[in-house]
Predict the 3D structure of the following.
Amino acid sequence: MKFNLSQNIFALLREKFHAGAQSKRMQKRKVFILLLCALLTACQSKPQPQGKRYELKGTVVSVDKPNKTATISHEEVKGYMEAMTMPYKLKDAWPLDVMKPGDEIQATLVVTDDSAWLEDVVITQKSAAQSATTPESSSTLKPGDDVPDFHLINQDGKPVHLAQYKGKALLLTFIYTRCPVPEYCTLMSNNFAIIDQEAQKDPAIYKQTHLISISFDPEYDTPKVLRSYGAAHTGNYDKETFSHWEFATADAAEVKRMAQFFGFTYIPDKDQIVHSLQTALIAPDGKIAKLYSGNDWKPVDILNDIRALFGKN
């Protein structure tokens, strides 16, 4: 039943002037109840902010409970994207407990300016096969392990190698420039941008650190592409020197070796790549200081870990 505020206020005012037997306290109570009801009605009718919503149908490729994501090979999402395979955050946790690779699902894809997730998940058909198609990392990497001297090509087309950064804290992550998921490569690059900007506020820390984003899509991410992508994320565009934050890649074999060492997984799939997330902080002595899997970490966490390396916490 809708609450008509104007009619009720009018009735109450009429009652006030023609029902003199009622006490002022009772009338005040009625006014309070009336306004409270009107307020509750208004709050209930106010639309909740939300992103654009699309129907999604697809097949579960893998489930990542720790990071609350599921990789879905889905059909075309009409009005938004072509058919592809990609990881999605889930609004509710329960599907992660029951979904298995091969299950067919339908869900609502919600997309905002900076994130995307699935909700209202329904398993439409269970799969007899229960093995994930996404490879599990066999890496046993841990803090204190030596990092090999991997060789790369940076955004300027110049060769670089990890050993040349010894003496500094090196922050390394994996990205590819065509990544369509806001909470994956874009988030990693945005987080690195914050770290880069915050480090500039402390000249000592800035001088003792270096950032490098490594593309695992060398065929597409040429030095020219990486330079454009990197300059956009640093915000300096054509004035960027990349002296503190570089963007690099390598030949396919070297990228694969790096991925295996750091415990990073990726699978090319048509025009995009299904992948995990892995970031590493390498100490000035060239050993692993800390690993950050997934996307739950915050820039402040890494900044604090960097300061701790130099005894500044």
Notes: Residues 52-125 form a domain with the OB fold (Dihydrolipoamide Acetyltransferase, E2P) fold (CATH 2.40.50.320). The two ends are 60 Å apart (CA to CA).
